[in-house]
Specification:
This protein is of the alpha+beta class and about 290 residues long. It has two domains: about 130 residues, Diaminopimelate Epimerase, Chain A, domain 1 (Roll), CATH 3.10.310; about 150 residues, Diaminopimelate Epimerase, Chain A, domain 1 (Roll). The chain has six helices and 18 strands. The chain has an 18-stranded mixed beta sheet that branches. The radius of gyration is 18 Å and the shape is globular.
Length: about 290
């Protein structure tokens, strides 16, 4: 059995930047073990597999794998899979302006707006706040006083539960490195990973600078993390960092040499949150695997 896949870069319009993704347009006939082996062989941050879905609920179903495990949801694989269905594959005859992808956290609607694709993530859930800043700083070989005191370290989910960590300066962000041992002890299957952010940025057009470390799930560092940008959007709304409605640019991946541009749109009204994450994609190539 042969299976085709394509390779794209997400949250960029330039090949070989942004976050890498492999997409298999036809996952039928593959077991979970085979999908995991393919993801491990390709060795990208994530690999996705597209399946038919109940058309009354979704247009397609998608399963998402890192090199070490399956994820219930992830941002850049969902957005990149949507781009592939719209622009590269011939598997969707309808090709409407809204595409519904079924993930293990529910159906995610995606919409084409001008030259970007936007996904609407789930209503946010807010969990524990962590007050031991030294423990948090030790995850990244930073000092406790480099973690902002004016904003909390907080667990937030819009599909995946992330730890949002405010860092004071761009310099501290650039010096941060994932302490593998400490990260593996701190995070579990419930809490996916840490998303560091600073209001100091490299590019003047960006409003936040971010980094994501997750060696405990096979990702040493991620160049663009849409499933963490969603929780960050909700966090910024909750704590009124940019007001009750905003659309901003999040820069990520600069330290890795894979600069990414994540569009973040948030709105809070009557204690209801709207969280949308957008971006562009670039085609990088295609391949075929013998199963």
């Amino acid at each position: 059995m042969k299976k085709e896949c394509i390779f794209i870069d997400v949250f960029t319009d330039t090949p070989y930047a942004g976050n890498q993704l492999a997409v298999f347009p036809n996952g039928s006939g593959l077991s979970a073990e085979q999908m995991q082996n393919l993801a491990k062989e390709i060795n990208y941050p994530e690999t996705t597999f597209v399946f038919d879905a109940d058309k009354s609920k979704a247009d397609f179903a998608v399963r998402i794998f890192t090199v070490s495990r399956e994820l219930p949801f992830a941002g850049h694989p969902t957005l990149g899979t949507a781009y592939s269905i719209w622009e590269l594959f011939s598997i969707w005859t309808d090709k409407k302006n809204v595409l519904r992808l079924e993930t293990k956290v529910g159906v995610i609607p995606l919409q084409k707006q001008e030259d970007a694709i936007w996904m609407t993530q789930n209503e946010p859930e807010f969990f524990d706040q962590h007050t031991d800043r030294q423990q948090i700083a030790d995850l990244f070989d930073l000092s406790a006083d480099e973690i902002t005191e004016e904003l909390p370290v907080e667990e937030v989910s819009t599909g995946n539960r992330m730890l949002i960590i405010p860092v004071k300066t761009l310099d501290a962000m650039q010096r941060a490195q994932g302490n593998v041992g400490n990260l593996r002890k701190f995070f579990d299957k419930t809490l996916i990973g840490p998303y560091l952010f600073s209001l100091e940025t490299v590019n003047p057009g960006a409003k936040v600078h971010t980094r994501f470390f997750a060696p405990h799930i096979g990702i040493l560092e991620d160049p663009a993390t849409g499933s963490a940008a969603g929780p960050l959007t909700a966090y910024l709304l909750k704590h009124n960092v940019f007001g009750n409605e905003f659309e901003i640019v999040n820069e990520q991946g600069i330290e890795m040499g894979r600069p990414s541009k994540i569009l973040m749109r948030g709105r809070k009204k009557d204690n209801k949150y709207t969280v949308q994450i957008g971006g562009k994609c670039a085609y990088a190539g295609r391949g075929e695997f013998e199963i």
